[in-house]
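Let us practice reading a record.
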Amino acid sequence: MAGAATELPDAILVNPNNTQQVASAIDLGLTMPNSEQKQRMKTMQARISEYTIEKWAGDFVTELSESVQKQKESPKQLSPKQRKTLLADYDRAKSRLILLDYDGTLKGFVNSLHERHSRPTDKVKKLLKSLTKDKKNKVIIISGRPRNALEKYFENQDLGLVAEHGGWVFDAGGWIKSSLTAKKWKKDIRPILEQFVARTAGSELEEKEFSFVWHYRRASPDLAYVRKEELKRKLRAALKTDDIGVFDGQKIVEIKPKRMNKGVIVRELIAKNNWDFILAIGDDYTDEDMFTALPSAAYSINVGVQATNARFQLNCVDEVLKLIKSLP
């Protein structure tokens, strides 16, 4: 389970949690002919003598460097020329719509659900304030976070806010709630989610008004992967309606209404005005709905290197902040 087993295929491999398999393996080792024992040991000794820790580490670093280079060479990476065009289009525009995700876009991920650990930095607040001061801009934070968290983060910032992927919308001084309801289906699946939190050390359950989120950022990656797939199967079997979806996110499994997504909100915003310039930035599966809802001329930017419907990509939060800071 530490990864060494794959380097020693001639060993008798077992699942240490399976007592019968371990017992059978011990019996096989003790009763194995001496000639086979010697041949297995000879093969494995030759293997570790040739593929030493130094060679393994060298291969690891080489593959890591190649991966970084591939990211830089991604065809969707925002090039200096494209950045220059974006800035020029922004400067010329008289009516601009700027849509920004929060976690993973303006703020790096943290290993805590508590909202106080994810507050926006002073740098982010300053950048947003510079955007909202320009009366040509309509700036909206469009996030999966609950409305009370967004209120605390961006109180008196003159921003539009969308919470829970569209469950709540704040504009013109008040919150508007979605007509969707979540009471019945949440009751059906709560016991399953609570069971998986108990079974998976480091995982947590977050309940929002319209959704559940199972977080596994602090859980063991191997265990989390197995539990995640099992959880998704059980949830899909338990849900009695096709209107509710089970979605994979950034170290999360989210259960929410399929009709509650950023694409719906974005279409409404686009219909309200004839925008000269649209910039949308996000990093998660939820932002893909936003990207696909945008007109082809909009500047849609995905944060990361995963497959995306966005026109362009940036590697990380710092690059997003640098781009916002460079806007004229």
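A brief commentary: The chain is about 45% helix and 15% strand.
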